[in-house]
């Protein structure tokens, strides 16, 4: 009986990881015009222009944990970088397009995300629903206009307490979430009428799980998030912020 409960619990956690990998994206961008990490992959242009999402693995070093792998997705979007950036700034609208995401809600703005002369910074509360589980967490998101890049990390329990002391109403993340971090950035494709979009998430839990399973989940669910962004770019009301 206890074994069945443990198996059921592990299945639920796998489902949670799949949902989280869909949407969570982190090498921090701390200063304007700083040198930021970019990938130099050999992209298949035919697949790119056909709208296919190409995936790659990138090794990165974690202090005290050795080398880990990050799954990276790359695709082309049929809009200029300025329009795509406008979409990526609108976190609060993403719940309509990203699978399993109930909502994103900006709860505090330190520096406006659309700032062009400094790094934007917001706290964004999110909720996912997977099967009958509700997963709450808050992300610390940075918006780097100069490098057309966004980075985000999970707000830890310790940070939640500090924010609450500052009268910023932040909720603690669901127990078991150890780390969420990642980044995305965009580049113009050729004449700039289209955009190449890079998405690189990392999700870790406090429940031991082999790296190959986490990588497989990230690869499988990466498409859901990226396809959500593609749909959002296609239907977005670009005039609403003018």
Main features:
Alpha-D-Glucose-1,6-Bisphosphate, Chain A, domain 4, 242 residues, single chain, 5 helices, 29% helix, alpha+beta
Question: Could you explain the architecture of this structure?
Answer:
With 242 residues, the chain is α+β, with helices and mostly antiparallel strands. It has one domain: 2-Layer Sandwich (Alpha-D-Glucose-1,6-Bisphosphate, Chain A, domain 4). Helices cover 29% and strands 36% of the residues. The protein is built from five helices and eight strands. An eight-stranded antiparallel beta sheet has the order 1-2-8-7-6-5-4-3. A hairpin with a 4-residue loop joins strand 5 and strand 6. The longest helix has 25 residues. The protein is globular. About 3% of the residues have low confidence.
Q: What count of helical segments does DSSP give?
A: 5
Distance between the termini: 60 Å
User: Under the CATH scheme, which class?
Assistant: Alpha Beta
Backbone CA Rg: 18 Å
CATH topology grouping: Alpha-D-Glucose-1,6-Bisphosphate, Chain A, domain 4
Mean pLDDT: 82
CATH architecture: 2-Layer Sandwich
The count of domains is 1
Q: Helices and strands in order, then pairings?
A:
Elements: H1 2-23, H2 45-49, E1 54-62, E2 66-77, H3 81-89, E3 101-111, E4 120-130, E5 133-144, E6 149-154, H4 157-165, E7 177-189, E8 194-205, H5 211-235
Helix pairs in contact: 1-5
Structure, briefly:
With 242 residues, the chain is of the alpha+beta class. It has helices at 2-23, 45-49, 81-89, 157-165, 211-235; strands at residues 54-62, 66-77, 101-111, 120-130, 133-144, 149-154, 177-189, 194-205.
